[in-house]
Design brief:
alpha+beta, 4 helices, 115 residues
Length: 115
């Protein structure tokens, strides 16, 4: 019985180590979803709520376009927020298109598992 417990503990440690490696690997490969926003922005707040079910599949980066260092984004998107870029590429604006988001996330996830 003691031997069984020892092997179970070793198996648990091994599985936990694999789990941690997978977690850390997946965190480094998560895509970045950039939300161009300002305060207040009710549509941005609504968009963030719609994104909740996907929150573990990307890193959300918010860019306040009203800050002086973001003046280029302000000029480009002042009438269009919320605007979303995925890994630096334009994805969507005004409202979250969940089918488009899902399609692009799946594409990136498939690429990261192959590479």
């Amino acid at each position: 019985m003691l031997w069984f417990q020892g092997n179970s503990m070793q198996l648990a440690r091994s599985a936990f180590g694999l789990f941690l490696r997978n977690c850390s690997a997946s965190k480094t490969t998560l895509p970045v979803l950039t939300l161009f926003t300002k305060d207040p922005c009710p549509l941005c707040d609504e968009a963030k709520e719609v994104l909740q079910p996907y929150k573990n599949r990307f890193i959300l980066q918010e860019v306040n376009i009203t800050l002086p260092e973001n003046s280029v984004w302000y000029e480009r998107y002042k009438f269009d927020i919320p605007v979303f870029h995925l890994n630096g590429q334009f994805l969507m604006m005004h409202r979250v298109n969940t089918s488009k988001l899902e399609k692009q996330l799946l594409k990136l996830e498939q690429q990261s598992t192959r590479g």
